[in-house]
Task: structure prediction
Amino acid sequence: MPGTEVYDRDYRLVVEYAGLGLEILPPFQIVFDVSKSLKPEPNKANFKIYGLNRQHRSTLEQMKRARVEFAAGYKGATSVIYLGELRVGMTVDEPPDFGIVVLETADSEAAFGTSRINTSFAKGVTTDNVLAAVATQIGVKPGNLPDAKRKIQAVFSGTGNRFPKGCVITGSASRELSAMCRSLNLEWSIQDGKLQILERGKLLEGAAILLNQRSGMIGSPTIDSKGIVSVTSALQPDVFPGRQVMVEGVRLKGRYRIEETAHSGDFAGEAWQVEIKGKKV
Result:
């Protein structure tokens, strides 16, 4: 995407609640930031929308827990970079513009915070089935949960994949899932309303995303004392935590797993990019 101009940018923001939806498209001015990571805590996104009429502003202010879908990129090449729920919608007055709508959102925050489990499991229950039962109680789509079950079955065979005396699990489903994943050398997160479970430090399947000057890399990648690489790129599709990136800088090259992403954009301004933090594969 090097050389793309402001007029090449494109986006689509949809807010839906109780069968009603509001779709916001160019040329409305929009400013956004979307933060994602491999941690279990909900991903978050904030939006500022300029120029909406009074009725649309009022509608957004009343849509608590509405579904929010945001796609961005360039004309003919946009991709969904965020799915979540509306936490707060409000109108603020900021000179010289007035009536700016601010949307604060989070990905599956209610499910993460309130989901609970209180279940007893019979003697001999398999570890993968207990994990699946706990994960299901989170209340989000299963995502790659079936893949995680197969990996547990492959790594822990026979009695190693069983609770000989059964077990009882009660309490916060998210906390219990974190405890089980730690014991199984797994890590979990919620990405766009779906579970994502990975072996600790391992990648999602799929080809690496190439990041170099020709593909849209901005500036030069850096690496800190802990081995965390930081690189900025023009918006690209399918850049999210767990994916592999191939970084080709002048002094820094290598394959990294994306740990965090921060998408940010100003439709009429300069920013239209994603900042990536990753660890060496």
